[in-house]
């Protein structure tokens, strides 16, 4: 062999080894692997740096746009990932990380995920998934039953029926919502007479054939942004996502909903779907689903419930009633990587009527042929991993009782935290928790007193100031790395619906304790005393004083 | 404490343990975990049963639709999964599993996946992903550069620019194609004058405003079914996916493409996108991308290339030229869980022009705010896992050279297998490999001789018979569990475009050897001699004999 040929042969052999020889037990990667298995919390604690680095700093480690020509050693890449990626990742499992919907995971999820990845099944078709397909159908059946509570014979008939699917597994809630609305849209304009259906002929001809000027999805203004995205993707346009006002508890006003539907009807716009929210992303409130279902029926609209967050509340005998009416929904979105405590990347939608999914059925010659059990014929996605195995295991190992405890504990913790905030003179609860989400802000006593008597213009000024302070505290706390709350913008009725930035807290991590919550408030109070925000605090105090003084004056005059 | 309270407290503590105490090293799950780390191939070999069980049998293990009330032990569920799920899963990593696009994975992917899952980042926003966001941006940049080969300054300017994204990470190729066409659709009908753009006002008003009767996506008839699905989802209707005839090599006929576009134009249908295929799913052929790009420009259409399969061919200095013209595409789809050898569940689309993604930009109040670096503002999906870490590691550890070897080996293996088939008198190659995919069938010599002289009606009868035989052999071979080829339906020009069922082979697993391929042919030949298909084989022989006899007679007469 020539030198060139020899080196080519050596490269090929090296490549072969990459696929056949496991990492040696003492290799960097194996050590990390074992470390994670033995003590995940310790691993995360040790490797994730607490203090946030500026992203522009972090970007320097990921600046090269050229794919390297020559391989680097696995150990080198492993060390790089530890130092540059893991170190600067977010400790989403931390009990003080209560700003988003990502929690600690049950321990068994980790080794189970490894099995899933090792098996590398593809759920699009049974040829690459075999038993994973019936398992996924069972998971869809179980969640369907949790929502719709049909009897055993219903599931015996439909769960494994190759021509039907009780739902669709998705990569997350966004695709689940999109899938539901895709079904709704296609069903709103079915084949009739010479018209072969929207799914074949498209929206333009559908509206012309049925004599409409447009089609709308109606939802409370607290609906998730994925619904607006779905309106865009589906070709309806973002205008077609019609928001309805909410009451003081962030729940849709049913009168306003009916009025809006009537108005749309008059404009010859088809109310294609009404969406109820079971756990708004920002405030965790649940729409009056029962009443919404009736309105949907009245207007012949598909009734979808986005229960991405709140769905698992159905596990709780104590709080299940909050979702009353969900069983009337034509479709319901669940996110598994939220309150089913499964790793990132899986959600699902269930359909009340097993025939619904057929509205979006697609086939191909080499897979998902007609009559096959393949689940790929009614999912938006094609190739998909076996994540349902993790849901299956959660439902078995935690069981209804386990999930009930998680739900109940979260809601009760939120209630205690709300009370804790109420008891602090310098914090203001903005939205009281219905589920396990609440919002609040730092608001010195004097500002609260001033707001209580302020007119609209005065309140606007004080709130603008408070929003700046809230933003500063939230950002700085995140950067310090001990704790994390998120922030959003709400329009509290008591402040003339003026947009206010608030802290948002999600209490789904079972490891979050009352002490941690107390510490978070304490740190926030301390941050309000920092130099960086001192000017703003001064202005706030002056404004509040002025408002109070003027108010006293007016009171005397009166 | 009362008994009830005590038991409640015990349940809560048990729940707490699930989140804090790792599986004991000697637990069933830990043993599986270690087993997989040490000897994945052995684990799969040992636990996956070779002989296929009927799915209706397997379904019995997944028949209960009720979520269990009481928790089961982790070990119990682990054992259940081993016995009922793993045992009846598909050995996708097997070198004899050459029917689909799922291969063995490099060993390091497994421990790396574990790190990814342990970190449980959410890429929708930097608040839940930090360094993962720049890393993902780098991955998008690297693939962008592989395709478009812009210079370093281009990437320094755009790769980490918070207001732009060079692409979108997705759960797979279907969502990648959908995202590209979503961008194309919105850009085909932009805001102008009083019209606020399709993304706001929807397709109906867009077509009315611009004076069109419809919008079409034009692609060869070998295009992936996800494109038809996208046409449906996007509200264009499946009719809007306009197929164009292919030549004998399954590549689009550019003359026919131009004619089709002219025809659409005449019908006042906007040619919204032209899609080139770089690696057709069924036959692995590459469209003439360069010529297609010119036609797309001529009609002002978005040019998308679906390189879900063939994209990584760009790593190969030898075969890169097959994709000439891909750099003219406005968008290109890559699947990472195919020829980037990453576990199931990740694909991506890159955009030539960094501003393209803005056509589908969405924002919300609590995340992906304007000006943030959050990648979630331009992805179809919301919450997403950090799968790009696995692509990053593949690109570093295998590097360009490693991927080149994999690509080159696959293509060369396909060529040798084609030759092997050519040399067998009783097998017929249907499509010659351009990349690493080919199709063929079992076809006794006499049948081949008869087909060579048969008229259309005779050929139809013989091919119908051969299709039944092919289907039998494919199904039986799969059920026996030693090897797996897939099947599809093609319309070979030499058989008057009559639909024929053929074996389809994908040679991407580096562990597949010539011996394995020989064995597959051998088993198929043996299966053709089985009782279950004997009648069909007899009929075939009779038909072939009759055709040959008649032909001889006619030859004499002539």
TrEMBL record, chains A, B:
It comes from Marinobacter halophilus. NCBIfam families: NOD_PanD_pyr. One of its GO terms (cellular component) is cytoplasm. The modification N6-(pyridoxal phosphate)lysine is found at residue 338. This is Putative pyridoxal-dependent aspartate 1-decarboxylase. Belongs to the group II decarboxylase family. SUPFAM superfamilies: PLP-dependent transferases. It comes from the Bacteria. InterPro entries: Asp_decarboxylase_pyridox (IPR022517), PyrdxlP-dep_de-COase (IPR002129), PyrdxlP-dep_Trfase (IPR015424), PyrdxlP-dep_Trfase_major (IPR015421), PyrdxlP-dep_Trfase_small (IPR015422). Keywords: Decarboxylase, Lyase, Pyridoxal phosphate. GO terms for molecular function: carboxy-lyase activity; pyridoxal phosphate binding. The gene is panP. One of its GO terms (biological process) is carboxylic acid metabolic process. Its cofactor is pyridoxal 5'-phosphate.
